[in-house]
Amino acid sequence: MLDLAERIVMAQRHVETGQGVIVRQRNIVARKHGRGVDASGAEELLARFEQCQAIFENNLERLLLEREPHR
Questions:
Q1: CA distances from 28 to 42, 46, 71 (A)
Q2: Which domain of life does the protein's organism represent (predicted)?
């Protein structure tokens, strides 16, 4: 099992990777709109990526709070 520091590093990677995925998907949506192509599927996928990103960010925040000494 991973220790807390390793879980934080993994969570940071998930957040960073997710940010890149969202940027790429937003570009896909924009290109589809620019070409006048139906972008609804790409928009749905973007919404799912954004939901996943919120989970990744919440997980990272929780781990960082766990790392702080109890007061």
A1: 7, 9, 46
A2: Bacteria
